[in-house]
Amino acid sequence: MSVFVAPLALVIERWLGYPEQLTKTIGHPVVWFGSLIDGLERRLNRPERDSRHRRDAGIIGLAILLVVAFVLSFIVQQFVRGLPLGWVVEVLLATPFLAQKELGRAVGKVADALSGSLAAGREAVSHIVGRDPDELDEAGVARAAIETLAESTSDGVVAPWFWLVLLGLPGIVLYKAINTADSMVGHLDARYRDYGWASARLDDLVNWVPARLTAVLITIACFIVPHASPSHAWTAARRDAPKHASPNAGWPEAAMAGALGFRVGGPRSYSGEVVHLPVMGEGKSALVASDILRALQLYRATLNVLLVMSIALALMLTTL
């Protein structure tokens, strides 16, 4: 039954998510990672050090994080696999590292809020993006939500699932540790440029296959979503993804934009500084709340495709 850990984790997390009461009681594993990452950064990333030493410090901090994550998750996995029905416990332990339910809920809140007013939409989207919300018009709020939905489908769902399938519980835990480190220190500002270099590069590496797999899954999902184009999805992904500064983020964003006839990307403001990003897709850019709902429909179909693929893979493995 261990081969069914991944599909069962997808089903349970999509249905239940991570219980709010559990968050209040013991916190969330990502928050635990964040505390360790923050503590290491405070201790190791000293401003008086030169660039080379700060980069070395970042490598050391990342190595400590990964050793802790691997050792704990490996010990836990070996322990639960020795229990009667231990695979059930393993399924439950894997679910916090997936984000299907929470991602859909958060983006859905932006659509609901934007339907009411621009101010409400800006407030809702500020919880899921880092760009300056006060600089966003209605189309900007919608684009921000859709871009986040597309990219997070990859690094919040497909990538954790991929590493769970490949390496079991340690795989999904290590992936989430790397991804959390990148989100916290993998920035290009003066404080993190050198210290976060290793985290950013390793995150690019572990997301390389999942990002492209996500574009494929979105393309397949178009066959079951009305008015979504699989040919446009794949064409946009291949054409526009290489334009993105990230080696991975452009694949799901371009695929979703092409599938739905949207144009996303372009300039946006972070802490008052305008950043010019490439355009993904060739469709309309004047997006509204209903377009977010269309993206959510494609997102849910993509999750269905992933689940079917996960079940099929598990069944194949049982016959080997």
UniProtKB/TrEMBL annotation:
InterPro entries: Cobalamin_biosynth_CobD/CbiB (IPR004485). It comes from the Bacteria. Pathway: Cofactor biosynthesis; adenosylcobalamin biosynthesis. Pfam families: CobD_Cbib. Keywords: Cell membrane, Cobalamin biosynthesis, Membrane, Transmembrane, Transmembrane helix. It is found in: Cell membrane. Converts cobyric acid to cobinamide by the addition of aminopropanol on the F carboxylic group. This is Cobalamin biosynthesis protein CobD. It comes from Devosia nitrariae. The lineage of its organism: Bacteria, Pseudomonadati, Pseudomonadota, Alphaproteobacteria, Hyphomicrobiales.
